[in-house]
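Protein record
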Amino acid sequence: MENSHDLMTISVLGGTGKEGKGLAYRWAKAGYRVLIGSRNPQKAISTAIELTNFLGGKACIEGVTNLTAAQQGDMVALAVPYPFHRETLELIKDALIGKVLIDVTVPLVPPVVTRVQMPPAGSAAQEAHEILGKEVQVTCAFQNISYDRLMNPGPVESDVLVTGTSKAARLETLKLVAAAGFKGWDAGPIENSVVVEGMTSVLIGINRQFGSTSAGIHIIGV
C-alpha cells in the first residue's frame, strides 16, 4: 500500500483488546503500517484480518507477538490490561531501547473500577518508566478515549491529554494523536499522568450513571 507514512511502523501491543484495536484501526486508516501485538499470535492475525477487511482491504496491518511488534515498531503503544502491564514491559524492555513507548494502560482494580486506585509508582506510565529506565522515553495518552469513539469514523469531540518523560517524546506522540483524528494537548511531565489515568475511572462512573459508553474530555478557553 502506497502512503505518506511508508517508513513509519506503529506497533500496538495488546492490539486485540478494545482500546488497542481501536488505535490500530485509527492509525491504519491514516496510512501507517500497523503491527498488532498479542500474547496469542493467532488472535493478533485474526484481528489484523478483521481490521483490514473493515478498511476495505486498503490498509497495511499485520498480527504478530508482542515481542516481535516491539522489536519492529518505530513507535510502540502499550494497551494491555493492567494485570499484564509489568509482565509485558519486562518482556519487551530491551526491544524498546531508543524508542518512545506510548502507555495507554489504566490501573483499574476490579470490581470498583469507578474508584481511582493508583500503583505505588504513582501511575501506570510512571511504573513503565521505572521498569524501562532512561533509555526509553515514555508518554501517557489515549486513556480517556472510548472504544466507541475510536471505531466511529464520524466527527470526534474528545480531546487527548499527553504527558511524558520529555518534550520531544510528547511532541512525537501528539503527531500520532493528530493522525488518529483527535485534538491533542501537551499536559506536561510524566508525573501528571496520575491525573490522565485517574480521569478514566471518573469517566467510567459518568457512563454508568447516564447509560453512555463514550464520555470524554474537551479542553476549552484556550
About this structure: Residues 193-210 form the longest helix (18 residues). Residues 98 and 111 are 37 Å apart (CA to CA).
